[in-house]
Amino acid sequence: MDRTPFRFCPTYHAKYPYTDQHRVCNLCLSPEHREDTREACKAFRSKKTLRDRRTRRLPMASKSTQHLDVEEEEMTISRVWNRMTPTETGHRRRTKRDAPPPDKESRKFDAAGKRVASQAANQWRIANSQALLAHYDRAHWDEMQDIIQHLPKEHKKRAQQVVEEGQAISNNQIRSALDSADTAARTVNTAVTIRRHAWLQSSGFKPEIQQAVLKMPFNHQQQLFGPEVDTAIEKMKEDTDTAKAMVALYSSQYRGTFRKPQFRGGFRQQPSEPSTSQTKPTYQSQYQRGGFRGSYRGQYPRARGKFQPAKQTPSNKQ
User: Fold this and answer.
1) How far apart are alpha carbons 170 and 164 in whole angstroms?
2) Quick one: DSSP state of residue 193?
3) Half-sphere exposure at residue 109, Cβ-oriented, CA atoms within 13 angstroms
4) pTM of the predicted model, to two decimals?
5) Contact at 8 Å (CB) between 130 and 173?
6) Are 192 and 113 a contacting pair, CB within 8 Å?
7) pLDDT, tens digit, for every residue of 158-197?
8) Would you list the DSSP string of 168-235?
């Protein structure tokens, strides 16, 4: 079957949705479509056909980006606001995950922190399920106390011992689940610390500021926000205010109109220092040194590219 939303009808020479189950395709596609002929179309019961009829010659949209509310009584279609709207797209962009640090070593720490956080989350879910089951078990054994009263005296003591053992086991399960949840919470703390360390390592802050930020959210020794954290925050705030004040002070001193310096006289060439290095002799070709050697040697020597006649010597006169 063709995957396109429409197929060609050889009887009426027109395109119609491929989900139609009848031959009278022009009744649904023509402008003269009547309300009483809808029952003749067997494919009107499917949502896919209704979507095809709604789009008609438009390209089909994916299932994840198109939603239709079909009212069977009125047989009408109302298109819901598409997911890929500007509002939804902006919301998805705002809810993106944090970008990894630019440094390679910091990215390794960040990935390790993510793995530790995922393991801690799974451990916390398991601990939560164990705690729920333990509470249910404890409630079950508490209800057994009412049944023991209706038992005979010879079986009542033995049943009481079984119930007490079950209650003790359920209490231990609750305590172990709470300990597991506490361990998972501390593991999440470790994961957050690892990722914060990776971010601070690539931030370029001073070591004092990095230590202050590391202690800020989690302080196990004293409390969530201890006095050390408050002192560090106050110091950072004072340093920031001082830096802003200094910038404003220096910027106010240099305010004013810029005056371009006037040009006075020509430029004077600076004396060149004598070079201590030996100058490399320039290369001279045979043409520049005095002509070519051959049968005309000495008759027309060359000097700087110009022809000069040879001087008369006693040997030449004879």
Assistant:
1) 10
2) H
3) 18
4) 0.37
5) yes
6) yes
7) 888 888 888 888 888 888 888 888 888 888 888 887 887 7
8) HHHHHHHHHHHHHHHHHHHHHHHHHHHHHHHHHHTTT--HHHHHHHHHSS--SSS-SS-HHHHHHHHH
